[in-house]
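To: structure subgroup
Subject: Chain for Friday's discussion

All,

I'm putting the inputs and outputs inline so they're searchable in the archive.
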Amino acid sequence: MILFGGRHEIYVDSPQRYRNSGKWTDFFFAFQAARDVASEYPEGTPFKVVLITDGIIDPSPRDWRDQYVPEGMDLKEEAGNRTVRFLEELGSPLYVILIGEEVGYDLIQRMVVAANGSVVASEYAQGIADFFDDDGVLLKRFIFRLEEEEGLEKIEPIVTRIATPPAPRVELGITGSLVAIIAVLIGVGVRSFPGVGDREIIELHTERPLQIAVDRLRRVASDVPAWSWKGLSLVESSRHAVAMMTVYEQSTELPPTGFELEGLDETARTLISLPLAELRERLQSLSGEGTKDEQIYALNLEYVAKDMEEALVERLITSSPADRAKFGPLDFLRAKVRLLYDEKLAAKLTGPCVRCKLYGVQGEEFELRHGSKVELGRYGYRVDELVKGGRKGYKIGLSYEAVPSPLFLKRLIPARVQRALRMRRSHERIVR
């Protein structure tokens, strides 16, 4: 619905402007507005234009200052001619309802012929005063097809609804529904234990091995579901286990598991596999009783080892076999030698440890200390605790760092959010 007067009196879908207070009547700019409305629809959409008017053109000279009207040309004639040409180009059928005490037949007929190719007309419908006096009965009959007694009360809600600026209620409803569905899917995806940041606590007797299984159905404590099939559990036989763990009060062997030793010279290959006590004796033997080259070798090794950074030594000693590929075996040997001359660091790194033996084709054995990383089955863990305590003497805390899940939800969603969605009181459990 385009309500129009002059160039600056055009309103699209604004029923509150339904009144006869306009100063001008200019068809040209009104039809331009109709073209602009039509351009917002998909190409090929058919349009019909219904014009309700008295047919008397009355353009504003100010509105046409920039339209290049020839000097001396009558503005009404020029505006009418341009309107006719514009309707020829518009290509939409035009239907005109004439109202008013006086009407302009000539221009309206030209406009209809330009738009439709011919004109079929009857007497104009009614006078303008009657039109407004009966609340636009003619408009209702021809446009909205309503009964006369129904009045504008039936029309106004329809027009107002069409003309109301778009509100995002529908979009918000759709978006809210999608968010709710996504939240439910995320909740289902992260509901089961474990998730990133969750912890498994394994309790061990000193030098008594435990067989560890992954993802086996078993009964668990009451603060989590009564049955679980995710995470770690204890089994009796190594046939069902992925690893065996044994805790030792002190470990000074520090085997070079995970390093490629083929590139080392014979002396280095001998030294790197020795426990710390035997490594100390062997270095002393080389320094005191070895050949000149062996003495120089031992002195250089001790000199370089003493200058190693403490953080690097700790990473070399506690790293998992898979992570040791980032370092060289000679660096590991120097780290072991550094422990011989740093009692504080040696006490930290050679205290209680867990000897872990992985089963399978790629089976290997290595030591776990605070900060070590290990892969058991399809999960990745980091040792965040190894202390005395628990029911058996020692306990080791394994924090999940890699957890497979559909759509990677357990990797992408923060651990706190996962725990909130799972509605659990604790993010850790004791392996049984």
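Points worth raising on Friday:
The longest strand covers residues 379-389.
Residues 169-190 form the longest helix (22 residues).

D.
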